[in-house]
Amino acid sequence: MPRALAKPGRNRKVTAADIRQSLLAALDRFAGSRVLVIGDLMLDRYLTGDATRISPEAPIPVVLVEKEELLIGGAGNVALNIRSLGGEVVLIGRRGDDEAGRTLEERLRSEGIEACLFAQENYPTPLKTRILARGQQMLRVDRENRAPLTPGAVRGLLRKAGEQLPRCSAIVVSDYDKGLVCAEVMGGLRGLRAAGEKKIPLLVDPKPENFPLYKDVTALTPNLHESGACAKMPVSGPREIVAAGRAIMRECACPHLIITLGGQGMAVFVSGEEVSHIPTSARQVFDVTGAGDTVIAALALGAAASLPLITSCLLANYAAGLVVGKTGAAAASPGEIREAVALLPVPDIERWE
Ligand SMILES: Nc1ncnc2c1ncn2[C@@H]1O[C@H](COP(=O)(O)OP(=O)(O)OP(=O)(O)O)[C@@H](O)[C@H]1O
Ligand SMILES: [Mg+2]
User: Fold this and answer.
1) Ligand nearest to C-alpha 284
2) Is residue 187 part of a domain?
3) Structural contact between residues 353 and 245, judged by C-beta atoms closer than 8 angstroms
4) Ligand 1 in contact with 289 (CB < 6 A)?
5) Catalytic residue at 293?
6) In the chain, is it the N or the C terminus that has fewer CB atoms within a 10 Å radius of its CB?
């Protein structure tokens, strides 16, 4: 049992009730913690209808659209998750100078998310359109380019980050490889953190292409595929996952690494020595979209509240387990997590060598 989880009196064994109590106390500390989120924003568009005909033009179904939904994605979804978990958030990103960008801005405003988006010409707001019929996804159409940030946008973004940082206790970089996370932005954040009185934790949801940019961050949260791609090794079982994780930690010099393992939960690395496996707490799985956003949102709130890493990971794992049971890129509330902590068995944390 991890030491950080519960402190019973001397000579008393740590019970499931002790662990639950300590998790609930930790969860209370999410409230009011403030996180700065910087990253790629996107708009998720869902067109839902019925498909009863085959097109006369090509052997493909025709979907008659009945409903259109536009949802905030990418770094915006991380911000929504932080807010849903009881935290406060400020979001910095970019959008295109286009209809999707204006819609994104409007959606964030109506959700009450404090956001500062830089509009860039010749950059289309990343838009993922999913066409669904009869409960099934028929096609996804993406519109995006990875245009680099203009030098003016880099300066503006870092200036804004500098203004916001004194009010925040953690930073999340949500990298969807749409061009925002670059050497200039990561270097600028490094400088801002070094200049602060206390080095504020920086957590990154990474993309394999950009691993060389993540030097000296506090924690990385790759999924299994991203870990294998970064470490350039196969990652199917615990031994390989441990080896890949240690290689990533050496490469990026980061003290914490959380590899999310989909239905297998997560592997938590502290300083490359201890590796703990937390099994998923999900009871039903409808839609795994955005579960990674939920994980980094909860971990950032845990870091902002100075919780021990394993405690934050357990809470993140409960939150993600709830989110995969909902449709779309959803979020979990403290009330739902409380209920899960109370009703589900305490996870069996295993040490991986
Ligand atoms: N199929 C599943 N069954 C149970 N739990 C799941 C499943 N998929 C994801 N989870 C939970 O969500 C967490 C994050 O999932 P995953 O490893 O798929 O992240 P991801 O690939 O970054 O997700 P995304 O990029 O879609 O947001 C896991 O650690 C686990 O707690
Ligand atoms: Mg992910």
Assistant:
1) 1
2) yes
3) no
4) yes
5) yes
6) C
3-state secondary structure of 22: helix
162 found inside a domain: yes
Q: Phi first, then psi: what are they for 220, rounded to 5°?
A: -120, 145
**How confident is the prediction for the chain on average, in pLDDT?**
94
Based on the number of CB atoms within 10 Å of its own CB, is 277 exposed (0-12), middle (13-18) or buried (19 or more)? Answer: buried
227 lines ligand 1 (CB under 6 A): no
**Count of structural domains within the chain:** 1
Full-prediction pTM beyond 0.85? yes
3-state secondary structure of 171: strand
Please state the φ and ψ torsions of residue 74, each to the nearest 5 degrees.
65, -135
State which residues have CB under 5 angstroms from ligand 2, the bound ion.
292
Would 53 be classed as within a structural domain?
Answer: no
Residues 190-213 have pLDDT tens digits of 999 999 888 999 999 999 999 999
Q: Which two tokens stand for residue 130?
A: 């999913």
Which range marks the domain in which residue 328 is found? Answer: 14-43+72-127+144-351
